[in-house]
């Protein structure tokens, strides 16, 4: 037999044809059906629905309605009504995924096509369906009631305020899932008044609310997860035929159903931006476990950020703000006119979650620095003083110093000074022996240049040179070491803090009197040359 029971409702879901009764389940019948969609293509599918479609039922309908076409029209009208109700409920519930049915007019399955089609529409949309058990005080495990007896529906019995079965509540082994208060329940009535009512229809909204709370706290829970959580935490009231798993116990529910962990990290706009600093901000919100740590990644390359600051979280604010002064709290010292990137992060249960990457540009610097390398004076066979000048606009230079060596292409930084004054311009000079630690050879050409640093950028003057005086007739003496603790140190500078060798007690060495520096003699011993303290040397 083929029944076009959707023919009156083609705009909603195409045409559906029952082709074959395959078998019966605990809640209805299994049919092979074909669907004709808008394009006219037939798709063979399996559906589980409950309609009066056995031969006896159909014959009975034909007898009462007149002919097979009337039977088809009967199916179509009922299905149309259910589809309209489904669409209405879908629009009313919006994004909700919990529906509670409390229709007292639906009695036995044989009374009509049943709510099972409507409820299967809900199931197909991922909706948890909660239904009142009914108020006839009958065993519905022995006589099918829709929607309470449909597989997958959460069927709710009613209890009085003493947690005993309400006298009117239907019951049934394997049918009742849970119980809730359904006696003397207050609610709104038409005209703005209130009303007190009894019924399983008063109980089922309580259960819908519990399931909604569970799924709100755990967005990734399936309908089955939420139902199992509610049942496993319920307080047992006795017979499962009367009470199912019992009555919801919210205290147990909280302890047995941990809130699913979830954290949101928002990287916010940087503020207080200057040439050399900024403060970056973020906001954290979470579900479940409090985050253990928050911090920031930072750098001048969005593809290569480093973790520069972190904090342990020991408060329970939710949401909460986070911020870091990049200089004082993250150890980052910025340059003017540069773009930097940052990203906030948080760690929850060992898992790191990062926000989006944001950026800011430090204020431009109109500063300028001019460095001039001056001449060398006081040039001897082993020393000289070199000079330079610095002039600037904007930010004061942070440092000046000297590059020096025997090749213009290979000079080393040998002296530096931090600038703490505000003179502008100002002079720069270094005695190569005493201030730069450089001890020169006679008749040798040396190269040097002065540098300065402003806002992290180095500026150098021109490279210049000088040649030490020739000293072919330099005087030398032979001396020996005495009155030491065992040896006399040879130092690279006229200071005991720079030892490079030693002369044993009583040993002879060569002394260069023209290279004296205060109380320090220039000596040579076993190929090592440097400064030794003169009071431990006696000329022979």
Write a structural description.
By secondary structure, the protein is an alpha+beta fold. The chain folds into five domains: 1-94, no CATH class; 102-260, Peptidase S8/S53 domain (Rossmann fold), CATH 3.40.50.200; 262-361, Immunoglobulins (Immunoglobulin-like, Sandwich), CATH 2.60.40; 368-467, Immunoglobulin-like, CATH 2.60.40; 477-539, SH3 Domains (SH3 type barrels), CATH 2.30.30. The chain is built from eight helices and 32 strands. The protein has helices at 10-13, 55-65, 68-93, 116-124, 200-217, 223-232, 240-243, 250-256, and strands at residues 15-24, 29-36, 42-49, 98-101, 128-132, 154-159, 178-181, 185-188, 194-197, 262-267, 279-287, 293-299, 306-312, 320-325, 339-348, 351-354, 358-361, 368-377, 385-393, 399-405, 412-418, 426-431, 445-454, 457-460, 464-467, 477-481, 487-491, 499-504, 508-517, 520-525, 528-533, 537-539. The strands form nine sheets. Strands 12, 13, 15, 16 and 17 form a five-stranded antiparallel sheet that branches. Strands 20, 21, 23, 24 and 25 form a five-stranded antiparallel sheet that branches. A hairpin with a 7-residue loop joins strand 27 and strand 28 (499-504). The longest helix has 26 residues, at 68-93. It is rod-shaped, with a radius of gyration of 47 Å. It starts with 9 loop residues before the first helix and ends with a strand. 31% of the residues are buried. Mean pLDDT is 79; it is low at 1-14, 22-33, 37-54 and 102-114.
């Amino acid at each position: 037999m083929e029944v076009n029971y959707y023919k009156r409702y083609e705009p909603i879901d195409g045409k559906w044809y029952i082709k074959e009764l395959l078998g019966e389940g605990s809640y209805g019948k299994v049919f092979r059906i074909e669907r004709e969609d808008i394009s006219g293509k037939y798709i063979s599918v399996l559906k589980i629905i409950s309609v009066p479609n056995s031969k006896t039922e159909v014959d009975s309908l034909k007898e009462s309605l007149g002919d097979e076409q009337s039977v088809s029209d009967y199916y179509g009208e009922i299905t149309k009504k259910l589809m309209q109700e489904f669409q209405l409920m879908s629009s009313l519930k919006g994004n909700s995924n919990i529906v509670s049915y409390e229709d007292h007019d639906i009695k036995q399955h044989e009374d009509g096509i049943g709510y099972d089609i409507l409820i299967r529409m809900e199931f197909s949309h991922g909706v948890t369906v909660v239904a009142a058990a009914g108020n006839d005080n009958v065993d519905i495990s022995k006589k099918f009631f829709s929607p309470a007896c449909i597989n997958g529906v959460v069927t709710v019995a009613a209890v009085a305020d003493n947690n005993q079965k309400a006298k009117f509540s239907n019951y049934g082994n394997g049918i009742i899932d849970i119980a809730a208060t359904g006696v003397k329940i207050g609610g709104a009535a038409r005209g703005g008044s209130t009303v007190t009512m009894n019924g399983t229809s008063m109980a089922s909204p309580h259960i819908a609310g519990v399931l909604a709370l569970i799924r709100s706290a755990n967005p990734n829970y399936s309908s089955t997860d939420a139902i199992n959580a509610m049942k496993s935490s319920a307080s047992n009231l006795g017979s499962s035929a009367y009470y199912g798993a019992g009555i919801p116990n919210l205290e147990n529910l909280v302890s047995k159903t941990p809130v699913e962990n979830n954290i949101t990290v928002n990287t916010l706009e940087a503020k207080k931006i200057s040439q050399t600093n900024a403060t970056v901000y973020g906001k954290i919100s979470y579900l479940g476990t409090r985050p253990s740590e928050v911090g920031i990644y930072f750098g001048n390359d969005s593809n290569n950020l480093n973790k520069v600051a972190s904090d342990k979280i020991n408060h329970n604010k939710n949401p909460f703000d986070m911020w870091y002064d990049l200089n004082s709290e993250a150890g980052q010292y910025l340059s003017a006119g540069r773009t930097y990137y940052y990203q906030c992060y948080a760690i929850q249960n060992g898992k790191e979650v990062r926000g989006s990457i944001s950026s800011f540009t430090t204020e431009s610097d109109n500063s300028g620095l001019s460095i001039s390398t001056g001449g060398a004076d006081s040039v001897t066979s082993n020393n000289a003083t070199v000079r330079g000048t610095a002039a600037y606009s904007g930010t004061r230079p942070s440092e000046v110093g000297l590059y020096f060596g025997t090749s213009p292409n290979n000079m080393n930084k040998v002296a530096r000074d931090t600038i703490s004054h505000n003179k502008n311009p100002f002079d720069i000079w270094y005695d190569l022996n005493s201030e730069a630690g450089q001890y020169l050879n006679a008749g040798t050409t040396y190269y040097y240049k002065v540098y300065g640093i402003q806002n992290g950028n180095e500026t150098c003057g021109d490279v210049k040179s000088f040649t030490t005086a020739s000293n072919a007739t330099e005087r030398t003496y032979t001396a020996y070491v005495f009155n030491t603790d065992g040896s006399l140190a040879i130092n690279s500078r006229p200071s005991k803090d720079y030892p490079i060798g030693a002369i044993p007690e009583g040993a002879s060495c060569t002394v260069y009197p023209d290279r004296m520096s205060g109380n320090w003699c220039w000596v040579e011993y076993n190929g090592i040359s440097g400064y030794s303290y003169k009071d431990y040397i006696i000329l022979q």
